[in-house]
Amino acid sequence: MKYPLNVDVHCTDGRYGRSSRIILNPTTEKITHIVVKQQKAPHTEYLVPVRWIKETTPELILLAHTKAEVSNLELFNQTDFVQRDVPHYAKDPKLVLLWPYAVPAKKIFSQRFKQIPPGQLAVRRGAKVKATDGGVGQVDEFVVHPESGHITHLVLREGLPWDKKHATIPISEIVRIEENTVYLKLNKAEVRNLPAIPIHQV
Q1: Within this chain, do residues 7 and 67 fall inside the same structural domain, yes or no?
Q2: Average pLDDT, stretch 138-167?
Q3: pLDDT tens track for 169-192
Q4: What are the Cα distances from residue 122, in Å, to 12, 62, 82, 162?
Q5: Is there a domain that residue 201 lies in?
Q6: How far apart are CA 13 and CA 108, in angstroms?
Q7: For 72, which of 15, 40, 82, 183 is 20 to 30 Å away at the CA?
């Protein structure tokens, strides 16, 4: 099964949004969630377990649950409110002798953070893929074994430094995966010479 990124996600009662990231466990080499961005404002993103996925195609992810059920899932982006001291220069004439010193003032700030399960990574489509001697493309999707659930290959997006529309990299050739970059054990020539692997679309 493939987990395509930046494609439409449909629930049992209609289109819900688009897939924006996958959440993977680099230790077990398993994809645990996809991040689905709601099509309607405020475009909230939710963590959807992969077990909720009924079917995928190159352009679509079909969930076996309703829109309401997805909207009750854990948020991917959380907002937290914190109070901080900020410099505030006194304007009261009585405090003019404080210049050039600042009077501390309290202010509330909002900050957004990604709600990623412990020990896991959020990988987006378009993340860079680097060989030992430089970049070779961008993440397009990951291929997962339908029975074990383990990632078997990384599919590179078009725009490679040779005349191929895509390339498939065995997971065994990946050194490590970060949110914005995937690092390979191979050099550019070795990536270019990888045999073409037919992938069954499900």
Answers
A1: yes
A2: 72
A3: 888 888 888 878 889 999 988 888
A4: 26, 20, 25, 28
A5: no
A6: 40
A7: 82
CA contacts within 13 A on the Cβ side of 202: 12
Range of 177's domain? 126-192
Q: Which residue has the higher pLDDT, 159 or 149?
A: 149
Contact 64, 54 (CB under 8 A): yes
Q: Report d(CA 160, CA 180) in Å as an integer.
A: 17
User: Residue 178: beta bridge partners?
Assistant: none
SS (H, E, C) 127-194: CEEEECCEEEEEEEEEEECCCCCEEEEEEECCCCCCCCCCEEEEHHHEEEECCCEEEECCCHHHHHCC
CA 172, CA 181: separation in Å to the nearest integer? 16
The total number of structural domains that make up the chain: 3
